[in-house]
Amino acid sequence: MSVTAPRGFRASGVVAGLKSSGARDVALVVNDGPAAAAAGVFTANRVKAAPVLWSQQVLRGGLVRAVVLNSGGANACTGAPGFQDSHATAEHAAAALSGSAVAAAPEAAGTGGRFPSIGAGEVAICSTGLIGERLPMDRLLPGVDAAVVGLAIDGGPAAAEAIMTTDTRPKTTVVTGAGWTVGGMAKGAGMLAPALATMLSVITTDAVAGPAVLDEALRAACRVSFERVDSDGCLSTNDTVLLLASGASGIAPTQAELTAAVTQACRDLARQLIADAEGASKEVAIEVVGAGAEDDAVEVGRAVARNSLVKTALFGNDPNWGRILAAVGTTTAAFDPDGIDVAVNGVWVCRSGAAAEDRSKVDLSGRQVTIQIDLHAGPDEATIWTNDLSHAYVHENSAYST
Amino acid sequence: MSVTAPRGFRASGVVAGLKSSGARDVALVVNDGPAAAAAGVFTANRVKAAPVLWSQQVLRGGLVRAVVLNSGGANACTGAPGFQDSHATAEHAAAALSGSAVAAAPEAAGTGGRFPSIGAGEVAICSTGLIGERLPMDRLLPGVDAAVVGLAIDGGPAAAEAIMTTDTRPKTTVVTGAGWTVGGMAKGAGMLAPALATMLSVITTDAVAGPAVLDEALRAACRVSFERVDSDGCLSTNDTVLLLASGASGIAPTQAELTAAVTQACRDLARQLIADAEGASKEVAIEVVGAGAEDDAVEVGRAVARNSLVKTALFGNDPNWGRILAAVGTTTAAFDPDGIDVAVNGVWVCRSGAAAEDRSKVDLSGRQVTIQIDLHAGPDEATIWTNDLSHAYVHENSAYST
C-alpha cells in the first residue's frame, strides 16, 4: 500500500503526458492530518535541481501538506525560470487542494470533509528525468489537477508507479509499529549516489511526531540505508527523501521506536533500488569488519563498490580479490596491507594480504554476492550495497539520454 | 628508439615464458654511464606490490644501474615470499651484469669494455600482470640471463614490447635537447590511475644531472602528465615511473630545460596510454578553465573523467551536458552553480548553468572529444585526459583476469 498504508494519507498517480511512453508521470501525496509534520534529506550535489531548492525552503518550516512528484523531466540546470516552474507547480497544487473534498479519508482531522486552505509553502516538489530541459508546464499543471481529483486512500501503488523512470518495477514498503505504521515509496535505478542513493523517496507515518523527531529519525535511517547504497558512484542533482507524519494513529512512539521503523522502511527501499539498478546482473553486499572506526568501514566499502575493475570482474564471475585489495589500498582507513583477509561468497581467497583458499572454490553463478573484508584494525563495521558493471549498464546509459 | 635513444643505455626484451601467449615478457634496461643517477615516482596505493617496495628502497640511494621489468605477473599481494622474489631477481641481475661485456656500447665509461661490478641495491624491479600470484622464478631468472645476453644499444623497442600486457601497441618517445636526449617507454592500458596513471614507465637521458635534479624534473613532469590521465579511476598496486641519467652527453642542461624535456616525454607517453586504453572508443580531453586554483581545475576535471554516466554518454555520442554539470557539482571547487559554461567539441551547450546552444549541433562521431568547462571563478586551468566507458571495456575487464 506504499505511502497510503498509514492512516491520514491519500495519493494518486496520473498520466500527464510528460513521458513519451504514455505511462503515469505525475504523483501526488497529501497528508490529511490531523498533523502535518515533516522532515527532508536532500542531495549533497552542489548543482541542485530547482525542485530541491524549492523543497529545501518548504522543509525549513517543518510542515508539509502535499508532495507533487513528476517523472519525465528533472527540472535541473534550468536556472531561475526552472525555479519559477517549481514554485508555480506548488502554487497550482495548493490552490487545487485547498477546500477540496476529502470524503474518501473519513479519518482525516475533519474540516467539514474539506482539505484545509494551504499555501504553496506547504507543498514540496520532486522531479526526475533528463537534466537541462524545462518542464512542459502546459502538461504538468493539468496533470496536477487530475492528480488532485484522483487522490485516494489506496492510491499509493499508482503514485509509486508514476515516479518510475528507468525502474523496471515500483518500490514500496510498509513497516508496522504498535498501533502505528510507516509506509514508503522510492524510485531510482541509476545515479545511485555516494551521499544519497535514491533519486526520490517519500516515507509516511501515522505516528504522532514533531519535525525534530522526524528529522532525527530520517537522518539516522538514511545514514545506514540510502547512503550505504552505491550503485555507480554518481550523485544526482535531484535526490530527495521526505518523511511525513499525519499523527492519525494518535500514538506517539519513542524516538528509538520511530527511528527503527523508518530505518527498516528505508533499508527495504534501498535494497529494492539495488535489486533494480540499471543493467545489473549482481546484487553485491560488501561487509567490512574489523575496522578501527565506522567511517573507515564505510570508506573501504565504498572504494570497493566504486571500483570499475572489481565491478567488471564480478560481472565476469571472477573472484579477483587482487582488485579488491587494490581498491582497499586507495583509502585512508586504518589497516596493515599485510593483515587484510578477503572472502568472496564465503571462501577466504585472501588471508593476511596474500592468496589463501583456492579461488576456483568461489561460486559466483548466482545473483547475490557477498564480499567480506576483515581489516583487523578494530571492532567497527559497515555494509555497502552495490552492483556489478555490465554490458547492460553501458547500453542503458549510452543509448538513452536520462 | 625508446629508452636507448640517449647515449649510455642498452636494453633488451626477451621471451621468458611468463606469458602464455609466448610473447616477450622480460625487459632489461641498463645504464652504462658514466653516471648512474636516478629518480622514481611510485603508486600512492597503500597496497604496494613487492617490486614497488623493493624499488623504493633502491631509489633512496639515487643510483640505478639496471631495471628489470616483467609482464605476466604483478607480484603484488604475495607477502614476504614475493618481496624475496623481487630481491632475488635483483641479485640475479646484478650478478649476471657484473663484469659482462659492453662492447656494443663503445661510448660507455670504459671499464675495459666490462660492465662494473654492481650489487642488487643498484637494480630496480618492475612487474605487471595478475595480482595475488607468485612469479615463476624458474622461468624469470633464466629470462633475466637471456635479457643480459640480448642487451643492445638498439634494444629499446624490444624492451617496450616486453612490458606490454593488454596494450595493443608499445609506447615509446624521444625528445631531443641541445646535444642531449630524453627517451622513454611505458605500458598501461588498464588501471590508469587517479594518483599515477601509468603502470610502468622508464625514462632515460644522457644529460648530466644528479638525483635531486632528476627527482624535481620527474615529479614536475608526472604531475602534469601521468597524473592528469584518468582512464578508469583505478589506482594500481604497481605503478612506477623511473628516470635514469647516464651523463654520456657530457652536457648539463638547466633544471628548467631538463624538466621541460622530461615533461614533454611523459606527456607524449601519457597520451599514448589514453589512446590505447582498454576498450576505449573515445579519447577525451577535459579542459577546465576559469578555476580559482589549479587544484580546483584538477578536481573538477577528474570528477568528470570518473563519472560513469558521463563516460557512457560519450560512448553513445550523446552530448549530455547535464551529467557533466552533475559531476562538477560533486566537487569542492570554487564555482557558482548558476555560472558554469560547458562546451562539447566546441559547441557551448550550457551557459550559466542552463541550456544554451542546440545540443544537436555537437558532432561526436570522431574519436577525439574535447569538453571545455569554464567555472568563471578565477584564472587557473588544467586538462585531464580520459576515455569513454564502452562495451569493450566491460568485456575486456570481465572476461580476463588481469
From TrEMBL, chains A, B:
Protein name in UniProt: Arginine biosynthesis bifunctional protein ArgJ
Site (Involved in the stabilization of negative charge on the oxyanion by the formation of the oxyanion hole): T128, G129
GO molecular function, one term: L-glutamate N-acetyltransferase activity, acting on acetyl-L-ornithine as donor
Enzyme Commission number, as recorded: 2.3.1.35, 2.3.1.1
Active site: T198 (nucleophile)
Family: Belongs to the ArgJ family.
Species of origin: Plantactinospora alkalitolerans
Pathway stated in the Swiss-Prot or TrEMBL entry: Amino-acid biosynthesis; L-arginine biosynthesis; L-ornithine and N-acetyl-L-glutamate from L-glutamate and N(2)-acetyl-L-ornithine (cyclic): step 1/1; Amino-acid biosynthesis; L-arginine biosynthesis; N(2)-acetyl-L-ornithine from L-glutamate: step 1/4
